[in-house]
Design brief:
Length: 327
């Protein structure tokens, strides 16, 4: 499974100050909405609301978040594609509908060139968690349960085509076993199902489920990144846990997008606005609390990163033999 290369998102410095100063002359012509193609409460939603809260006083115009869930994030993404490219409709997207979906879905309703990458926000690992009633306290013990009941143990995801779907798919493939996939429209409803004991496990964004881990409501067995996460220093990386998983590595990412045709000055200004938000000490503290790290770079660099992720995930999905209908 393809991972986010940390050096790729850190390689580019923040925009130079003169560039930022010039870009700040642009403002959207009216009230602006930020589409979140996921349910409220998850990491995509958290990032969308952070950006909206930052831009609202900065622009002195209303900036609201609209959650448009379903079809692995493609419903909300299609709404962005259909929007007028004047800057009044933006989207806080993620690795699922903006990278994975292009090769996973057979009937994609939009193309990569119809969605314009503007700025990355946060990246970070996923984490394997089980509900409190599951007896497994290690990945090896969970693997034993799965192998003893192949195709019978349910697991949740935040939607078909999300990294929270393909992360457990890869794990199950590497363990040579099966489980029942129960997709949801976002992280919050998936977590409700997990907390209620209706599913045994899920691999969710660390940024979205860290609170339940810290409260003891769920038990973390492994993080999906190459190394352990400082937020959960006692939780092993997946690749540490079993020989079969020695090459396992997955991260996820989130960023701001606009419709194709958005003017260059708008793109540059928005990128500078996100850079300014990320540079705030309170944003950096929030990212640390969420277990993620900031993504720096201008719009061209973020666009190149997104395109590379599309290519990488296409190979992963081809190798896994996955294909589903969108919607």
């Amino acid at each position: 499974m393809v991972a986010i290369a940390r050096r790729a998102v850190f390689a580019a410095p923040l925009l130079a100050l003169p560039h930022v100063a010039r870009a700040q002359s642009w403002r959207p012509p009216g009230p602006t909405r930020i589409i979140v193609p996921a349910a409220a409460g998850g990491t995509t939603d958290i990032m969308g609301r952070l950006v909206a809260q930052f831009l609202n006083p900065r622009w002195n115009i209303p900036v609201v978040v609209e959650n448009r869930t379903g079809a692995g994030g493609t419903i909300g993404s299609l709404e962005l594609v259909r929007a007028r490219p004047d800057g009044t409709t933006l989207m806080l997207g993620n690795i699922g509908p903006q990278a994975i979906a292009y090769s996973l879905f057979r009937n994609m309703p939009y193309r990569p060139d119809q969605i314009l990458p503007i700025a990355g926000t946060i990246a970070g690992p996923n984490v394997l968690v089980v509900n409190k009633d599951v007896p497994a306290r290690t990945v090896a013990e969970l693997a034993a349960l799965l192998r003893a009941q192949p195709g019978r143990i349910p697991y949740a995801s935040t939607g078909v085509g999300q990294s929270t779907h393909l992360s457990p798919v890869l794990m199950l493939q590497m363990l040579n076993t099966e489980a029942i996939h129960v997709p949801h429209r976002g992280s919050a409803p998936a977590q409700v199902d997990l907390l209620g004991g209706n599913v045994a496990f899920m691999i969710d964004n660390l940024t979205g489920i860290i609170g339940h881990i810290q409260s003891g409501a769920v038990r973390a067995l492994a993080v999906t990144s190459k190394e352990r996460n400082s937020l959960l220093p006692d939780v092993p990386a997946m690749r540490e846990t079993m020989p079969e998983l020695a090459t396992y590595e997955v991260n996820t990412w989130f960023g701001l997008f606009g419709p194709a045709g958005l003017a260059a000055d708008a793109v540059n200004s928005l990128n500078a606005d996100v850079a300014a938000m990320i540079a705030l000490p309170e944003t950096q503290r929030r990212f640390t609390e969420l277990g993620g790290f900031p993504m720096h770079g201008n719009a061209d660099e973020f666009g190149a990163f997104v395109r590379s992720e599309i290519t990488k995930w296409a190979e992963v999905i081809r190798r896994e033999g996955l294909s589903v209908e969108a919607g």
